């Protein structure tokens, strides 16, 4: 058994665990943080993606003891006071999830992507999510959701819009909701 | 200007892209996947699986596992045979079908790699996994049975020695005189296509929690299943737990695609162990374990022959199918290829059709439903063949289809296979798709690239499909020898506070039933969308149901909600009339409010009526004090969505890589409840159909081991591997149901695979390539080009 | 799936790591980024009794320049992500940054390390061929001190390197490739898939000619390989498609590619020729 401590979603934990314990099983079975699911055993699917010390990682390919002294954020730690992040909102509004099993990992991976590239192209989004598999959506609405969240985050970061004659607010539009404009019109 | 904005009626819910009620817990991680469930005293089940197939079990000893720390129990198949009956197949498609015994855990012999041979129960996940290593098993390998044709040879080794044959059944269908039609044909084209085995890959691996009776007298089984109601019936038969004392709950379920349309041995074993040990038991599949233990899909060899005139008029069609059952018959294994039997003629008119399917046992993981189940195979064969026939006749493949398809004015139309297509407009969908695709421009580019011998060729693939879904009219199921019916149930409870509880027998796992059923009920009842709660996936809360598969949920289950709501309104009308002291016939019901014609100030809302019924102080004499209602729908017919899918693909003839450049589909699924959700279903369906065409295959080696045994080897496409899709719809309402709706869950998968492969072959046809086996891997495409060039050089 | 039990130590220094490995014998294994090892343990394809986690040894991370030689010195535990974003690597060994960007996916690149990839020596891994093309050197620390192994001697066989059981790869030395054009051409079936074949090309151009080319091949044998015949044919060749194609025809010479689910040896040989042509043309800037 190995002693270690880690902070998960803002709460610090001290534990003694077997060194072989996977971080994802620590989260799920020891802390009861079941928002992060397990989807494979080879690191391919990305369902278990969390943030460790600021970086996205696949928590099935990290030992819990490797997170010693570290800070973990899971999908359960994203919303503050019940207010969703732009990504969570965008996944909902753009219908970027169906069964939702890949969603926690997808959101965590997208969050990492936007941190490095706040204004990605659709191709960059697809590339940035290459380590996360979804079997329901065909990815198209996930790409749209990340675009929408990026636009929303840029809007929030931008200085407050000024009047039209004194300055130019960020006018780049967020993508319209999932069906508008995307389904070709007759 | 037309006057329109003056009506009081709120905007109808049906037809709106409502964002989903389901999402809040899913985007925040407040989910209830089965593996999340924990309960005091929970034990963990792990399953030892055969590392080879087939083999005789010479000796098995679980005693050493019992010595391991934390182990509570360890049992062999023989130990469990006292606890459990065999796992049933409920679809004996012919009278003389061969149905082998299928124990949940093998006794004496294993027939596929991954078959359970022993189980251990321990205090933790890790302890259970460790204890498996201690179980001792001696195997004597037996000869594997792998190829479908080889399996039918006289001297083939037998998967089930006692049965004397590897032939499971042969099922024929003949209409018209194919031989006569063939005799008068100018062209007879014969092709063989192989439907590779696929692994469904729902993102949530299977999981089960079985709890013994505690507070109440019932067992509870939580399971990642599509079919809690079916599972309850089957598992009570297998375990002997009386049905009324077994509750099955499908909590949040992470996708299914047919793989959870199953009742699995692990569910039965978990219940048996909960009973034996008196403690709750959890089992969670690992992904690579699931690759062997969860049923596979497809796995067919199709010999298809089409007879036509030189003008391209189809005269007849002959299909001879070998279908891989795998080592055992699971819940509906034998019936899957027969769901395609009626679909080979597709949207085309012809004079004769002959079909034969032979089910074959092999020493591989059993097959069963995978998205589309039978219809993708049929659609692939006919749509590939149509492109081949067009090439043979020198016709544009669209033109060939036009000459043969059922025209919109001909509906309802009884197909040569005997199905009555209620509605459709193939012309409209095709015209729309061609326009969106830019068909003529792409053809011009294709010619130009061919002319300059561009190593990157452009191919255009077409798929004009229909399918039968919305399973199913119970009488048809009787004729097909399926053991159960095809109805679906819904109830609506009008609560005293004015809120509404809808129960549905469908069991969603990503489809958005809670949202869509709310939309349907809201319109009929005139109550706010947000006031409706949809309850599903729990046999205690929803006593009747046939669950979710075969694109049936909306066209059967959604329809049941609609009819139940109509019944509620009818009952409420009687109460309202009583309260308003008016005749029922004089009442109008708009936007949830009853009013008396001519005196608009006298009103009762449906919520008023619900409360009045709850109090029951003043109801019509003799009236049962409720306006709640239930309804069961047994559909009159299948549902026949259709559409035109067009794929442009660039094939690098140097490397063999095929890259989809554009994909356009125009689907006609009749009336739409929620366009956003419909589009999501199409997207996901396309991804899975394209995956079959280009990426995925369950590969076995010559000894019968699954080589593509992990997610690193079985290539589920990720975001960069798929294109953006252009989707659109035409809307030809179904005439077979009151909502005018058709199923959409499988359409994308059914339609897309042949569109993609047709495009690959179309790109390479001038080089002499006539087919590329699925998945069209770079190696296969390169090989096809290389072989065709060599052949061209020789001749 | 769940790993079998093991002991775990996390040394603070290289010396301590080496000592622990030495004492642990053949049942001790180094845990670097764990992105290959942990899945292997989960599938129970390996059963080490002791894992020596190099994750907290500061001197194993980061990139610096060796003032004596000008070479880059990359700590073995530098993650793929950090390699990709390191300004020194980008400036002087762009090939390594470009190839590392194709490794697995972003989350794996946050944990996976250059040293871990090289020590794992998977012939389908992208980075061994890159180091071969860059004429890199590996610095190993063991109980008998440090030694430097050239990349061409480091990869011994399938999943086997010149490292002894009690040696730790501590540094990767990469000579500057300033002024060289570069390209890594990876061919995989899906985005996150392993390379069926990969070609790492470095080209030095002088006056429209290829003065020198170095080509590393991924997954064309049990170890990464150099396409020596093609390199020789390219020396002095015109940087034009015909000349490059003709030289690339020899790219598969001396290779012994394997058969697997994605490819036969013949197909791999063919791919090596096509991808070498493309990689060299891209590296030469004449694509």
Commentary on this structure:
The complex is a heterotrimer of chains A (186), B (795) and C (287). Chain A has 186 residues and is an alpha+beta fold. Chain A is built from five helices and five strands. In chain A, strand 3 and strand 4 form a beta hairpin. In chain A, helix 2 packs across helix 5. About 10% of the residues of chain A have low confidence. In chain B, helix 16 links the parallel strand 20 and strand 21. Chain B folds into three domains: 181 residues, Aldehyde oxidase/xanthine dehydrogenase, a/b hammerhead (Aldehyde Oxidoreductase, domain 3), CATH 3.90.1170.50; 255 residues, Aldehyde oxidase/xanthine dehydrogenase, molybdopterin binding domain (Aldehyde Oxidoreductase, domain 4); 147 residues, Aldehyde Oxidoreductase, domain 4, CATH 3.30.365.10. Chain B has 21 helices and 28 strands. Chain B has a seven-stranded mixed beta sheet with strand order 3-5-1-12-9-10-11, with helices on both faces. In chain B, strands 7-15-14-13-8 form a five-stranded mixed beta sheet. In chain B, strands 18-26-27-28 form a four-stranded mixed beta sheet, with helices on both faces. Chain C has 287 residues and is an alpha+beta fold. Chain C folds into three domains: 47 residues, Uridine Diphospho-n-acetylenolpyruvylglucosamine Reductase, domain 2 (2-Layer Sandwich); 112 residues, Uridine Diphospho-n-acetylenolpyruvylglucosamine Reductase, domain 3; 89 residues, Enolase-like, domain 1 (2-Layer Sandwich). Chain C has a five-stranded antiparallel beta sheet. In chain C, a hairpin with a 6-residue loop joins strand 13 and strand 14. Chains in contact: A-B, A-C, B-C.
Give a quick rundown of the structure:
The complex is a heterotrimer of chains A (186), B (795) and C (287). Chain A has helices at 23-30, 86-93, 103-116, 122-128, 140-157; strands at residues 2-8, 11-17, 49-52, 55-58, 71-73. With 186 residues, chain A is α+β, with helices and mostly antiparallel strands.
């Amino acid at each position: 058994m190995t002693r270690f401590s880690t902070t998960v979603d803002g709460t610090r934990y001290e534990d003694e665990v077997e060194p072989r314990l996977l971080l994802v099983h620590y989260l799920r079975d020891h802390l009861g943080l079941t928002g992060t699911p397990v989807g494979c055993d080879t690191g391919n699917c990305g369902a278990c993606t969390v943030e460790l010390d600021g970086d996205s990682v696949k928590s099935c390919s990290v030992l819990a003891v490797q997170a010693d002294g570290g800070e973990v954020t899971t999908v359960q730690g994203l919303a503050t006071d019940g207010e969703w992040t732009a990504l969570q909102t965008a996944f909902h509004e753009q219908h970027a999830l169906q069964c939702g099993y890949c969603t926690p990992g997808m959101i965590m991976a997208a969050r990492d992507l936007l941190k490095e590239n706040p204004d990605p192209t659709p191709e960059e989004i697809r590339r940035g999510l290459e380590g996360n598999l979804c079997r329901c959506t065909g990815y198209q609405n996930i790409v749209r959701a990340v675009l929408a969240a990026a636009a929303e985050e840029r809007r929030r970061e931008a200085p407050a819009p000024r009047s039209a004659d004194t300055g130019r607010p960020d006018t780049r539009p967020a993508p319209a909701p999932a069906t508008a404009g995307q389904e070709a019109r007759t | 200007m037309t006057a329109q904005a003056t009506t009081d009626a709120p905007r109808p819910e049906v037809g709106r892209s409502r964002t989903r009620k389901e999402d809040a817990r899913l985007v925040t991680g407040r989910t209830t996947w089965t593996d999340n469930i924990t309960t005091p005293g929970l034990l963990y089940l792990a399953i030892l699986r055969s590392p080879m197939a087939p083999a005789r079990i010479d000796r098995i000893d679980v005693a050493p596992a019992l010595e391991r720390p934390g182990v509570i129990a360890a049992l062999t198949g023989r130990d469990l045979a006292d606890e459990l009956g065999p796992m049933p197949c409920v679809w004996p498609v012919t009278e003389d079908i061969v149905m082998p015994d299928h124990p949940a855990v093998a006794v004496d012999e294993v027939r596929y790699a991954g078959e359970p041979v022993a189980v251990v129960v321990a205090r933790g996940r890790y302890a259970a996994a460790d204890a498996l290593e201690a179980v001792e098993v001696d195997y004597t390998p037996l000869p594997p049975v792998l190829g479908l044709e080889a399996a039918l040879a006289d001297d083939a080794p037998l998967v089930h020695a006692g049965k004397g044959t590897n032939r499971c059944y042969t099922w024929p269908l003949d209409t018209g005189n194919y031989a006569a039609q063939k005799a008068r044909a100018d062209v007879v084209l014969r092709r063989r296509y192989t439907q590779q085995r696929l692994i469904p890959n729902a993102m949530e691996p299977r999981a089960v929690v079985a709890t013994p009776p505690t507070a109440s007298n019932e067992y509870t089984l939580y399971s990642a299943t599509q079919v809690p109601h079916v599972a309850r019936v089957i598992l009570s038969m297998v375990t002997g737990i009386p049905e009324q004392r077994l509750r099955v709950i499908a909590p949040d379920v992470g996708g299914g695609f047919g793989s959870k349309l199953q009742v699995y041995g692990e569910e039965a074993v978990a219940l048996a162990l909960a009973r034996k040990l008196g403690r709750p038991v959890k089992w969670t599949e690992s992904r690579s374990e699931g690759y062997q233990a969860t049923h596979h899909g497809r796995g067919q060899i199709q010999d298809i022959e089409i007879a036509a005139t030189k003008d391209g008029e189809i005269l007849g069609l002959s299909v001879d199918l070998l279908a891989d059952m795998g080592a055992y018959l699971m819940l509906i294994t034998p019936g899957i290829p027969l769901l395609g039997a009626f679909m080979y003629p597709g949207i085309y008119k012809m004079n004769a059709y002959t079909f034969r399917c032979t089910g074959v046992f092999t020493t591989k993981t059993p097959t069963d439903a995978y998205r589309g189940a039978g219809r993708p195979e049929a659609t692939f064969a006919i749509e590939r063949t149509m492109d081949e026939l067009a090439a043979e006749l020198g016709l544009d493949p669209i033109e060939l289809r036009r000459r043969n398809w059922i025209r919109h004015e001909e509906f309802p139309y009884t197909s040569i296979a005997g199905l009555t297509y209620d509605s459709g407009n193939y012309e409209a969908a095709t015209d729309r798709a061609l326009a969106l695709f830019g068909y003529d421009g792409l053809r011009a580019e294709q010619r130009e690239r061919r002319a300059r011998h561009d190593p990157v060729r452009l191919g255009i693939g077409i798929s004009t499909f229909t399918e039968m879904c919305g399973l199913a009219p119970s009488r048809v199921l009787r004729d097909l020898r399926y053991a159960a019916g095809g109805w679906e149930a819904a109830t609506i409870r009008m609560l005293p506070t004015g809120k509404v509880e809808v129960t549905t027998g469908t069991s969603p796992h990503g489809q958005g039933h809670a949202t869509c059923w709310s939309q349907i009920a809201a319109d009929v009842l005139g109550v706010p969308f947000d006031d409706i709660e949809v309850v599903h996936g729990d046999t205690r809360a929803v006593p009747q149901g046939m669950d979710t598969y075969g694109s049936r949920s909306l066209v059967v289950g959604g329809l049941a909600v609609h009819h139940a709501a109509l019944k509620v309104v009818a009952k409420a009308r009687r109460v309202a009339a009583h309260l308003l002291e008016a005749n029922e016939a004089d009442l109008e019901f708009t936007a949830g409010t009853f009013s008396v014609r001519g005196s608009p100030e006298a009103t009762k809302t449906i919520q008023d009526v619900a409360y009045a019924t709850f109090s029951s102080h003043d109801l019509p004499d003799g009236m049962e004090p409720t306006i709640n209602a239930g309804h069961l729908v047994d559909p009159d017919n299948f549902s026949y969505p259709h559409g035109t899918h067009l794929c442009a693909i660039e094939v690098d003839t140097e490397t063999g890589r095929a890259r989809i450049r554009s994909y356009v589909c125009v689907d006609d699924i009749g009336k739409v409840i929620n366009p956003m959700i419909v589009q999501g279903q199409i997207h996901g369906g396309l991804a899975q159909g394209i995956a079959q065409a280009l990426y995925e295959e369950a590969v076995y080696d010559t000894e019968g081991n699954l080589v593509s045994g992990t997610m690193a080897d079985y290539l589920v496409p990720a975001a960069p591997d798929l294109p953006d899709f252009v989707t659109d719809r035409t809307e030809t309402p179904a005439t077979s149901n009151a909502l005018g709706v058709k199923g959409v869950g499988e359409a994308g998968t059914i339609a897309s695979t042949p569109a993609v492969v047709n495009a690959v072959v179309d790109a390479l046809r001038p080089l002499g390539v006539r087919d590329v086996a699925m998945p069209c891997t770079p190696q296969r495409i390169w090989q096809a080009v290389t072989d065709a060039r060599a052949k061209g050089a020789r001749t | 799936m769940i790993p079998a039990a093991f002991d775990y130590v996390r040394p603070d220094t290289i010396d301590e790591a080496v000592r622990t490995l030495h004492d642990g014998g053949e049942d001790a294994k180094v845990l670097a980024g764990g992105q290959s090892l942990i899945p292997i343990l989960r599938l129970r394809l390996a059963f080490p009794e002791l894992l020596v986690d190099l994750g907290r040894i500061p001197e194993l991370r980061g990139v610096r320049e060796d003032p004596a030689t000008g070479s880059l010195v990359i700590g073995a535990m530098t993650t793929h992500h950090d390699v990709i974003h390191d300004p020194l690597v980008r400036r002087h060994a762009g090939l390594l940054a470009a190839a590392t960007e194709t490794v697995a996916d972003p989350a794996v690149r946050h944990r996976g390390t250059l040293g871990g990839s090289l020590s794992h020596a998977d012939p389908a891994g992208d980075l061994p061929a890159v180091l071969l093309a860059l004429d890199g050197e590996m610095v190993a620390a063991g109980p008998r001190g440090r030694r430097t192994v050239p990349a061409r001697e480091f990869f011994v066989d399938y999943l086997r390197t010149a490292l002894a059981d009690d040696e730790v790869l501590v540094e990767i030395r990469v000579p500057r490739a300033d002024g060289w054009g570069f390209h890594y051409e990876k061919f995989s079936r899906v985005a996150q898939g392993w390379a069926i074949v990969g070609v790492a090309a470095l080209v030095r151009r002088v006056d429209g000619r290829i003065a020198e080319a170095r080509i590393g091949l991924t997954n064309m044998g049990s170890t990464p390989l150099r396409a020596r015949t093609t390199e020789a044919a390219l020396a002095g060749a015109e940087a034009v498609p015909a000349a490059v194609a003709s030289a690339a025809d020899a790219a598969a010479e001396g290779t012994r590619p394997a058969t697997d689910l994605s490819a036969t040896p013949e197909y791999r040989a063919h791919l090596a020729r096509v991808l070498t042509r493309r990689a060299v043309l891209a590296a030469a800037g004449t694509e």
